[in-house]
Amino acid sequence: MLTVLIILGIVLIGAIGVWSRARQTSLSGWSVGKRDLPRWTTWFLQAGESLTTFSFLGLAGIAFGGGMSALFAVGYLTIACVLQYFILPRQRQLGANRGYLTMADFFQDRFGSRTLGKTVALVGAVFLIPYLQLQITGLGLIVQLATGSSDASGYSMIVASVLVVVFVIWAGLRGLARVAIFKDFIMVAALVIVLAGVIAGVGAVPDVVAKVNAISSGYFTISRPGLDATFWVSSVIVTGLGAGFNTFPHLWPPVLAAKSGAILRRNNSWLALYQLSLFIPIFAGLAGILILKPKTTGNTVLLSVAQQTLPDPLLAVIAIGGAAAAMVPAGAIAMGISMLVSNNLLPVKNQRLRFRLNHLIVAVAVGLALAFGLAKSDIGALLLLTYGGLTQMAPAVAFANAKRVRVHGIPVVLGILAGVLSVAIITFGNIKTGGIDSGLVSLLPNLVVLAIAEGLRRVFFKGQPPVPAETQAHPASPARGTVEGAAA
Q1: What is the DSSP string of 171-190?
Q2: Beta strand pairing status for 227-228 and 223-224?
Q3: What single-letter DSSP state applies at residue 36?
Q4: 3-state SS of 192-217?
Q5: Rounded to the nearest 5 degrees, what angle is found at the Cα of 109, between the Cα atoms of 104 and 112?
Q6: Largest CB tally within 10 Å, which of 213, 231, 257, 433?
Q7: pLDDT grade, residue 481 (50/70/90)?
Q8: Cross-strand partners of 361
Q9: What percent of the chain has pLDDT over 90?
Q10: Which whole-number Å values give the CA distances from 58 to 26, 178, 282, 433, in the listed order?
């Protein structure tokens, strides 16, 4: 019965995405609409990054093993809101004036470099795949833990993936916005239910804190093995910079589609309040220390606590909330990947063909993530891999957001490539960094290579402006959203 309720909930989420909405027929309408999204629609789309499967499962697991180390998520998301208050309105203004459809369009236009635009598109698409996989993996874990069935987990992942592809292809950003509204309400309800269950079954906040402190006061410091101060500070810096400078391609459509920069600024004045909800999974993780076996897998902590404290009907609500928290980011990420590939990487000029290829790429991206997700991966590791890689574009965003770009596109390309290569080597080579986030370590070669390359350019091409004059004189083509005449 529980499995049936969860599957029906997942189907409902997909139905909301396609309900009463005419199918989008152009790439610009599909991705950014008429650039007139009102405040509350933009709010729920922006808030999607605060409540994801990582918030739902990953934070409880980190709190279970590392106590207060889990607060790094509250720290970086709050920092991101402050930075975005100043950065997003500028990006939205440039997007409206220049016709951007993707983050890569922004880079190509600002630096006058096709090479940079394609590099950003490739890096963005590649590093979003682990994040998309994270959402699919998290959804499967939620269903498996709620039902106790690995078969139900696999079926739900397949059903959810198909529905994500359907509503994203059908309605684009508008459909995603409707699902995002439902997701936030059901997610908040699920977290409140978790909180009530923990209080009723384990104890109130003071009781749980006192009992955990009696086991080890180290849980209320950032000194747990592998989750110490080095991890905390470096993770906050990397993820705060990445999110704050908006280096994640799937978060650009809501920004570019917003009705005004003032809306984005008002939203970021209040979005930090969403971080208060993150204390609930952290509290559940602490409660898990008292009632779960010490070797419990981190990703399973929140649902395991819920199973011991709540009846099945309420467990179904939690599972559906978790599924929504996976499907909305999954849809946004699939859109981000498909737009980068179809709009910036594929040399296709026919608009209708490009639109169809875009839909195919949505299906391929979700399919790849589903295949990797069925093999299961650590949620926290996937998040940090994506953030470490995409944060390598933060220095370039800082240069591009300025009124006048003073750095050439090729040094920026070389810096980004040095950074992402460093992230890949550290991650897949299992190189020890003393607990420092690989993304933070990799910013050093990124900046060094960029500085050397730009210094050499200024010596050997003295007097030559870094950005071709035509990129500032002619607006981007509305059809392409990029500057067709600019070259690196």
Answers
A1: HHHHHHHHHHHHHHHHHHHH
A2: antiparallel
A3: -
A4: HHHHHHHHHHCCCHHHHHHHHHHHCH
A5: 115
A6: 257
A7: very low
A8: none
A9: 53
A10: 37, 25, 9, 22
Distance, CA of 103 to CA of 97 (rounded, Å): 14
The angle formed by the CA atoms of residues 369, 371 and 377, to the nearest 5 degrees, is: 75
CA nearest to 115, candidates 126, 125, 107: 107
Integer Cα distance of 372 and 375 in angstroms? 5
Comparing CA positions, the residue from 370, 171, 191 lying closest to residue 283 is: 191
pLDDT score of 469 more than 70: no
Total residues belonging to the chain:
488
Task: Name 459's Cβ contacts closer than 8 Å, sequence gap at least 6.
Answer: none
What is the CA 370 to chain-centroid distance, rounded?
A: 17
Distance CA(87)–CA(140), nearest Å, equals 35
**Amino acid present at 45:** L
Structure confidence at residue 476 (pLDDT)? 44
Burial of 261 (0-12, 13-18, 19+ CB in 10 A): middle
Cβ contact 32:257 at 8 Å: yes
Which residue in the block uniquely carries the two structure tokens 């574009």?
A: 393
Six-digit token pair at 427? 């991650």
What are the angstrom distances between the C-alpha of 323 and each of 14, 354, 362, 424, 442?
11, 31, 19, 30, 33
Residue 480 has pLDDT above 70, yes or no: no
Average pLDDT estimate for 262-272: 92
pLDDT at residue 50 above 80?
no
Greatest mean pLDDT among 162-166, 232-236, 409-413: 409-413
Residue 149 has pLDDT above 80, yes or no: no
Q: Which residue has the tokens 């080890």?
A: 216
CA angle 291, 297, 301 (to 5 degrees): 45
In this prediction, residue 379 carries a pLDDT of 52
Pairwise CA distance, residues 311 & 284, whole Å: 16
The rounded percent of the chain whose pLDDT value lies above 70 is: 93
Whole-number Å distance between alpha carbons of 446 and 424? 13
Decide: residue 464, CB within 10 A, 0-12 exposed, 13-18 middle, 19+ buried. exposed
Helix (H), strand (E) at residue 472 = helix 470-473
- Decide: residue 276, CB within 10 A, 0-12 exposed, 13-18 middle, 19+ buried: exposed
Is residue 6's pLDDT more than 50?
Answer: yes
Buried b / exposed e across 343-367, counting CB within 10 Å, b at 16+?
bbeeeeeeeeebbebbbebbbebbe
The single residue listed with the structure tokens 């917003």 is 258
> Which pLDDT tens digit goes with each residue over 319-346?
899 889 888 999 999 999 999 999 999 9
Contact 446, 392 (CB under 8 A): yes
